[in-house]
Amino acid sequence: MDNSELQTYLKENSQVEERFMEKALAYLNQENLKRAPARRYNDTMVQRQADKLFDQVLDDVNSKIASQIRGEHTRQAWVNFMEQTDLLEELEDSMSELNFGGEEE
Fold it and tell me: What is the pTM of this model?
């Protein structure tokens, strides 16, 4: 499963991306406000930064799953692994607890 397929699966079956984006965008917007007004990024640039951060998360998750799956690397093998290990729930919990740059809640 490549990152695109993994992202689609996560989007359809969990709230991992939504929880990550909520935290990432809040942090990036807060950091953006610290920039001089003339140097602030527009919303599109901030979103692009958040997307890049999520791509890094996908890369990490993808490589960890790939290293754990033995034998066939079919989509179904990936889904079975994620279901058997409760990976989606763990990822959602991790995203809920995620803190960027020492932010306080």
Answer: 0.88
